[in-house]
Fold this protein.
Amino acid sequence: MVNYAWYDTAQLLKIEKAKKESDWFTAIVLSAVQLERHGCLEIKEYLENLNVKSELIDRILKRKYLYEIAEYLMVIGKIDSEECKTIKTVNEERNNFIHRRGEERFKRGLEAKDKYAPLIDDAIRILKEKLNVLRIFIGKS
């Protein structure tokens, strides 16, 4: 087995590129996915530091949605209430893009830029500053 390490920045770069290109669907959906992924990693790390058994951690995190992950992150002190609100808004907007029923529930054009660009900027900041998206992953192959 060979040890390897990498920075988990590829998805972050995709989010930034999508925002720059005004691809709001991609930017919002990838932001939600990465907030969920790195949120779970932070919660898992927190519980491991409390010596919680891995089986219990898996049960706690199984089928958790971004809305719930945001709540957990606030409870353990990783994010504040405004950041929790931002994550929940990203989740809501992701749902508006993904679960289209009847009338469109998402914005287009300049209205979209005004609404989504600051939200994506906040999501990127949370990923970088609070959820350690730039952490190094080390593993074996």
Observations:
- Residues 3-140 form one domain.
- The longest helix spans residues 24-49.
- The helical segments are 10-20, 24-49, 54-61, 66-75, 81-98, 109-129.
